[in-house]
Design goal:
The chain is an all-alpha fold. The chain has one domain. The protein has 22 helices and no strands. Helix 12 packs antiparallel against helix 13.
């Protein structure tokens, strides 16, 4: 275990020096290969290991879902979803804040990415709330908090990555994230409702009542974008498509919507493709390096050692084991972006806990929820910086507002841990 300790020290030291995650991880792995290699494994094996993960058919879905989320921003879908959300919940006090959370949940069913939500839908939401009289800090806080729904509600790029690494069914992860995602949305809206009643600031929040005639007009505008979720989940559930093939269908549907809404231009399409390729390239490079790192720690026996440690700490209690792991995930999520953390942890932790009888789908969803909370927690909360940038609000003020939603999220996370059926019921019913 000494070799693993040295690798982690090198990795963390480089990380705190500001070196990108992929290079910090790669340097630690390279040091092991050159100086601590126990049986003289040749460098060619490292290259083969790094490329083996790239050959996963399920992984092809990831750039597809990334493209769909970006295309929905390009094609004007965000405005239509927000108007529909305002029509549904705007009539309550703090209605635009409720609409912010609801619109993020609906957009998450197309984007699968927290940053796409924060950077695309977020600006529209904040501008609308500011014009209605809400403080910019408050609108930025709920925008950042609701953006974490992106990786939890399917389709999710993180779920594709986790599923392809751990050999867990991506469809099972998709179905497993639906109920927790809805519960998180409800928890945010419940907290907003409590603030609207119990706080002086909340009682001053306006209601945004949309006339019934206008409200009804938002329904046909929202149905075509929401069909994206139906196309993805329905085609998988009906056995027509694999998640990868469903991603391709969703890509074509997003392009058709852009054409029908007359928002799609050749320039916009090219920028969307470029952005998708750039983001997917980062994911792929990170995944290849992380797979080599995971291969090393497997050779060094870390998963087996971790299984022994978890067994000693938690005994026969799976709940206690979940709680121990969740605390670790919450801490790691504060320092690493969700994709990097998931790629680093999945091949180490999933084998250790499944050998102790824990459902891998349940555990993976808990891990993703815990890690994505790091996107709104300092010091490296990515969504905080994105929202601060697009909204023109200092990061510390966005952070102060976003953290107010953390207790309600933790309650949902605890419920998901205590009641596995919240995750496992839909996969069991829909994948029979």
């Amino acid at each position: 275990m000494t070799n693993i300790l040295i690798m982690f020290i090198v990795f963390m030291a480089l990380l705190f020096l500001g070196i990108p995650v992929v290079f910090a991880l790669g340097t630690a792995s390279l040091i092991w290969l050159l100086t601590m290699n126990p049986v003289g494994i040749p460098a060619s094996v490292a290259a083969q290991t790094m490329m083996s993960q790239m050959l996963s058919f399920a992984l092809i879905a990831m750039p597809g879902f990334l493209f769909v989320g970006r295309m929905m921003n390009t094609s004007g879908v965000t405005d239509r979803l927000l108007k529909f959300s305002v029509a549904v919940v705007g009539r309550y006090r703090g209605g635009l804040a409720h609409a912010n959370a609801l619109a993020s949940m609906l957009f998450a069913s197309m984007s699968g990415n927290a940053v796409a939500d924060a950077g695309g839908l977020g600006l529209v939401e904040m501008d609308m709330m500011t014009k209605a009289g809400y403080k910019r800090d408050f609108s930025a806080g709920i925008t950042a908090a609701s953006s974490i729904l992106g990786p939890i509600i399917p389709p999710s790029a993180i779920m594709v990555l986790v599923g392809s690494i751990s050999s867990i069914s991506v469809a099972s992860l998709f179905y497993g994230g639906i109920i927790p995602g809805i519960l998180l949305t409800g928890a945010m809206m419940g907290f907003i409702a409590l603030r609207a009643v119990l706080t002086k600031e909340g009682r001053s929040w306006p209601k945004t009542v949309m006339p019934w005639r206008e409200a009804l007009k938002t329904v046909p505008q929202a149905i075509p974008p929401l069909m994206t979720f139906v196309i993805i989940i329905g085609s998988i559930m009906g056995g027509i498509c694999t998640p990868t093939e469903a991603a391709v269908l969703a890509v074509w549907w997003s392009i058709i919507l852009g054409i029908c809404y007359k928002e799609l231009t050749w320039k916009g399409l090219w920028e969307t493709l470029t952005d998708t390729v750039r983001t997917a390239g980062v994911f792929m490079l990170l995944m290849s390096v992380a797979s080599f790192f995971a291969w090393i720690v497997t050779i060094e026996g870390l998963p087996q050692a971790l299984r022994g440690i978890l067994g000693a700490l938690a005994g026969n209690s799976q709940t206690l084991m979940f709680l121990v792991c969740t605390v670790v995930f919450l801490i790691i999520g504060c320092f690493l972006d969700t994709a990097s953390a998931a790629l680093l942890l999945t091949p180490i932790v999933i084998p250790a806990v499944t050998s102790l009888g824990i459902d891998p789908v349940h555990f993976a969803i808990v891990m993703i929820i815990a890690l994505i909370m790091g996107a709104i927690t300092p010091p490296f909360g990515l969504c905080l910086f994105v929202v601060a940038d697009v909204g023109g609000v200092p990061v510390r003020r966005v952070t102060a507002e976003a953290l107010k939603y953390l207790p309600s999220m933790l309650i949902v996370l605890l419920l998901v841990i205590l009641y596995p059926q919240l995750v496992t019921w839909l996969p069991q019913v829909l994948l029979k």
